[in-house]
Amino acid sequence: MTAKQGAGACSGGAGRPRLPGATITGWGTALPDTVVTNADFEARLDTSDAWIAERTGIRERHFGGTTSGLAVEAARRALKVAGVEAEEIDLLVLSTTTPDKTVPATSSAVHAELGCRGAAFDLNAACAGFVYALVTAVSMFQAGFSKALVIGADTLSRITDMEDRSTAVLFADGAGALVLESTPDHELVLGHDLGLDGSLLPILYCDHGEYMKMEGKEVFRRAVRATVESAESVLSATGTTGDDIALFVPHQANKRIIDAVAQRLGLDESRSAIVLDHTGNTSSASIPLALSEAADAERLNDGDLVLMSGFGAGMTWATALLRWGR
Ligand code: COA
Question: What range does the domain containing 312 cover?
């Protein structure tokens, strides 16, 4: 990958225009009821609990629901935490790679079901999509929006071949949502880097009506490199180092990818937010799921620096350095 951060990428560090002030006031998650364990796959595919756990870190995942249904559930929880009514929301950005329909955008159904007002649209940057959506929403505060719901929701089980052991054990369903409010008093996004290398499209893709196709080893290799380079570019642009990061919230694809990235960034394991052991890879949902669980576990304090970094089909990558708090 020519992961030259700067080519199509932008970091909000020294000398760069800053994003408008914002604060995260609510967070919420949704996972379908059906739990599928590694033992369930072991019973019907040529695989084992030991292989899946060792090679990926995943022990169980959730299958079911619709993208809009999971998005609504996560959003309702986030609104409740924020103490914000749905009708106060004037911007809804839904990151998904598995829309319910081709037309209209899944955010239409979510907007109607919640009773939001204002603008709503879907964004697809695959598994890097949630960070793209977050940076987009905060940027749009400059255009006058003031309360945003940013949701990552995916139902990857619908586009995964359950007979293919190399992908079936990885992908799953879920949603995570954040409520963001515009404020001049808090700089939320200290730096960001959004990018992609479209020449890598062939290593992970899904044609209409078909299942995902993936060159696992190549995706692994590229993912580590892209994530490290993207995160390093943001740390460098903002004059921070791994030592300054209170919580690393990576895309949850493979524990070995997360560990390799964290190690290169100088982050010890205790500072990574991990949910993939019980969620699998939920694409757009994985970063807000991990952030929300960390917030619920009271792992975050005002002023903490949070580094979010994801990668996905495209290949896309996205990093944002946030300052938690109000
Ligand atoms: N159970 C048992 N064996 C499996 C298996 C499974 N579920 N899946 C693959 N294997 C086998 C392979 O067929 C291969 O067998 P072979 O040597 O006989 O050909 C062997 O395990 C090793 O395969 P390899 O691809 O080298 O394994 P790996 O250690 O790279 O792990 C992935 C495979 C898919 C888990 C890993 O490459 C990965 O996580 N890649 C990134 C995927 C990703 O992040 N995708 C989402 C991007 S958003």
Answer: 3-18+186-323
What CATH number is given to the structural domain containing 139? 3.40.47.10
Kind of pairing, strands 213-214 and 204-205? antiparallel
Specify whether the CB–CB gap between 256 and 57 falls below 8 A: yes
pLDDT digits (tens, 9 = 90+) for 27-36: 999 999 999 9
Active site residue 116: no
Q: How many independent structural domains does the chain possess?
A: 2
Residue 127 in this model has a pLDDT that exceeds 80: yes
Given a contact cutoff of 8 angstroms between Cβ atoms, the answer to whether 292 and 233 are in contact is no
- The CA 167 to ligand 1 mean position distance, Å, reads 8
pLDDT in tens, 218-253: 999 999 999 999 999 999 999 999 999 999 999 999
Q: Which one of 36, 40, 55 would you pick to mutate in the ligand 1 pocket, going by the greatest count of ligand atoms within 8 A of its CB?
A: 55
Residues 83 and 138 in one domain: yes
| 184 cis-preceded (ω within 30 degrees of 0) | no
Structure pTM?
0.95
Q: What is the 3-state secondary structure (H, E, C) of 175-230?
A: EEEEEEEECCCCCCEEEEEEEECHHHHHHEECCCCCCCEECHHHHHHHHHHHHHHH
